[in-house]
UniProtKB/TrEMBL annotation, chain A:
ELMO domain location: 129-285
The organism of origin for this protein: Scomber scombrus
PANTHER family for this protein: ELMO DOMAIN-CONTAINING PROTEIN 2 (PTHR12771:SF47), ENGULFMENT AND CELL MOTILITY (PTHR12771)
The protein, known as: ELMO domain-containing protein 2
Pfam families recorded: ELMO_CED12
Record GO terms (molecular function): GTPase activator activity
Cellular component per GO, a single term: membrane
Classification via InterPro entries: ELMO_dom (IPR006816), ELMO_domain-containing (IPR050868)
TrEMBL record, chain B:
Subcellular location: Cytoplasm, Cytoskeleton, Microtubule organizing center, Centrosome; Golgi apparatus membrane
Single biological process term from Gene Ontology: protein transport
Positions contributing to GTP binding: G24, L25, D26, N27, G28, G29, K30, T31, G70, N126, K127, Q128, D129
InterPro entries, per database record: ARL2/3, P-loop_NTPase, Small_GTP-bd, Small_GTPase_ARF/SAR
Main location: cytoplasm
Gene transcribed to yield this protein: ARL3
Protein name: ADP-ribosylation factor-like protein 3
GO annotation, cellular component aspect: centrosome; cytoplasm; Golgi membrane; microtubule cytoskeleton
Keywords assigned by UniProt, alphabetized: Golgi apparatus, GTP-binding, Lipoprotein, Magnesium, Metal-binding, Myristate, Nucleotide-binding, Protein transport, Transport
Stated family: Belongs to the small GTPase superfamily. Arf family.
Native species: Oryzias latipes
Length: 301, 182
């Protein structure tokens, strides 16, 4: 059965799709990209379809658009219109629509590169910026308690493992710390609320460690491409780093809600519940209208 | 169906299952070691909340390796995993000299546990890729390993990061399971 699937897919993508598109083009007078841009509202469905269309195009100009730099995209759209013989007078919206699609598609890839760059930066105690960020995290989460020294058991109160957080960032590097600080800075009330749940004597978990773990979740979802529908729906242009940090905030807040509702027996169950939560997020991401934004909170961001 | 079941019968007896417990302080490298054993990517590791478990085939054994988080808060839960352990692997960060005393104390407590009595112990002197790492001999001396009389033990220097020394350690694990079963 599987074999037939492969053969059909091969025949379809290499011959049938091409002829089918040609036929529809003759009938409607519009190329596939035009039909996509006029047939679907801005967002994930439109952009994903445009992405697929460009990727499987026989034209170098169209395929090349996916690797074009942000500043050259406008010119690139003009080239595509020329190649596909699209008249601006006949479809006035097309240029802008395709431009936005391309900003989203290429922006997703460059967002991944920026995120990966931050992840690769190892937290260093010699770096004053890193140190300042760490201390800022403390002050944001524990405004009434003073840190007694840089190396202290107090770090355990915000969920680091030992008396020096520097060894806890591991494979997530500076990205893990930046996400923690971003959540505390932009959603201070929510972050403190999550921390208070995390410090619950029975249902508690290690706030910072779990946060670093959720950064890993956000990172691998981004890397696999699973976050495309979310960013295509929520950012009508180039997604920036702050949009990634915002997604982390969503995960941190929602995971806490989930954990509290599930009432796990102990912290030892963490990985099972993490997987369960991960599956819930992945199911949301299957929905073409998905938008993973912190809602029903006190956020004013 | 018929052919399949015959083929299944022809296949040699299923691998013997071995329960391995991976313990040690936080940031010792337990999860990296676990992922190396399972030939998985080690570049995105985060601190372990709770535990990880993986099954690895090796030398006719099915090794079920339990990697339990090492932070102080979690250590009281270690004992929940002692039962039926065949081999204990204790991982030490050889470059973290400040915590040698703490790690020695935890190990000594483990060796006193009734449920772990007689269980062979392999000590991985990990992070040998770091210039500041103490050699295995120095760690063995500091931990007074030579005074262990009630079980088989071995110390193996390794780097979970590069994979060096891990195979040698696992060979010893399989050997000790074999000799215990006899």
């Amino acid at each position: 059965m599987e074999m037939f699937g492969y053969i059909w897919q091969y025949v379809y993508t290499s011959f049938l799709r091409y002829w089918l598109k040609w036929l529809i083009r003759q009938a409607t007078g519009k190329c596939e990209l035009q039909r996509i841009c006029s047939g679907y509202k801005p967002g994930a469905t439109r952009t994903m379809k445009a992405e697929f269309s460009l990727k499987s195009s026989k034209s170098k100009v169209l395929r090349g658009a996916l690797e074009t730099k942000k500043d050259d995209l406008e010119q690139c759209v003009n080239q595509i219109m020329k190649e596909k013989n699209v008249k601006p007078q006949k479809s006035p919206m097309f240029k802008e629509s395709l431009h936005i699609c391309l900003l989203q598609i290429t922006g997703y890839n460059s967002l991944y590169i920026s995120v990966e760059d931050l992840r690769k930066v190892v937290f260093s105690s010699e770096n004053q910026e890193h140190e300042a960020m760490l201390l800022k995290l403390w002050d944001l989460l524990m405004p009434t308690v003073k840190l007694e020294s840089r190396i202290t058991k107090q770090w355990g109160d915000i969920g680091f493992q030992g008396d020096d957080p520097k060894t806890d960032f591991r494979g997530m590097g500076l990205l893990g710390l930046i996400n923690l600080v971003f959540f505390s800075e932009n959603y201070t009330e929510e972050a403190r609320q999550v921390l208070s749940h995390a410090n619950h004597p029975k249902l508690g978990y290690s706030y910072a460690i779990v946060g670093i773990n959720l950064t890993e979740m956000a990172y691998s979802l981004l890397k696999s491409g699973a976050l495309k529908p979310h960013f295509y729906n929520t950012v009508l242009g180039t997604p920036e780093l702050r949009h990634f940090h915002q997604l982390y905030c969503y995960l941190a807040y929602e995971f806490d809600k989930f954990w509290v509702a599930e009432e796990p027996e102990s912290i030892m169950e963490f990985n099972q519940y993490r997987e369960k939560f991960h599956n819930i997020v992945k199911t949301h991401l299957q929905d073409p209208d998905v938008s993973l934004i912190l809602t029903d909170t006190l956020a004013k961001n | 169906m018929g052919l399949l079941s015959i083929l299944r019968k022809l296949k040699s007896t299923p691998d013997q299952e071995v329960r391995i417990l991976l313990l040690g302080l936080d940031n010792g490298g337990k999860t990296t070691l676990l992922k190396q054993l399972a030939s998985e990517d080690i570049s995105h590791i985060t601190p372990t909340q709770g535990f990880n478990i993986k099954s690895v085939q090796s030398q006719g054994f099915k090794l079920n390796v339990w990697d339990i988080g090492g932070q102080r808060k979690i250590r009281p839960y270690w004992r929940n995993y002692f039962e039926n352990t065949d081999v204990l692997i204790y991982v030490i960060d050889s470059a973290d000299r400040k915590r040698f005393e703490e790690t020695g104390q935890e190990l000594a407590e483990l060796l006193d546990e009734e449920k772990l009595s007689g269980v062979p112990v392999l000590i991985f002197a990990n992070k040998q890729d770091l210039l500041t790492a103490a050699p295995a001999s120095e760690i063995a001396e500091g931990l007074n390993l030579h005074t262990i009389r009630d079980r088989m033990w071995q110390i193996q220097s390794c780097s979970a990061l590069t994979g060096e020394g891990i195979q040698e350690g696992m060979n010893w694990v399989c050997k000790s399971v074999n000799s215990k079963k006899k």
